């Protein structure tokens, strides 16, 4: 079973046909081609940052003493994009005004689309309340950073 996030454009009603369904999963393509994967998904800022970090890692990898550290930087960048790439895409869409309308657990994308459009009334005039994710900033409960770690507003 996979988790799918359904995002609707600004001002659209729930069940809009322009909704984007994004699967939250590990991406093998993003592991091997992180910058191209981010560009394909229109995450321009994240792609530029990944390119800069990988360029730095490649420059450090040429040094005889720090070569292994440079390879580690490149590998860490690839792994971060492969694990968190869909979250970067969702964050970019929410910055542009899109809202998370539903979180669906399904076997594949076709099943997730079927579940989403079957549970949404076709003639709904106004948008539904936005879905509150566990890492949402709207949570009344706040935690301080633990063990010297940086706080991430209760997110991952």
TrEMBL record:
Keyword vocabulary terms for this entry: Membrane, Transmembrane, Transmembrane helix
Residues spanning the membrane: 28-53, 65-83
Domain of life: Bacteria
Protein's name in the database: DUF2628 domain-containing protein
Originating species: Shinella yambaruensis
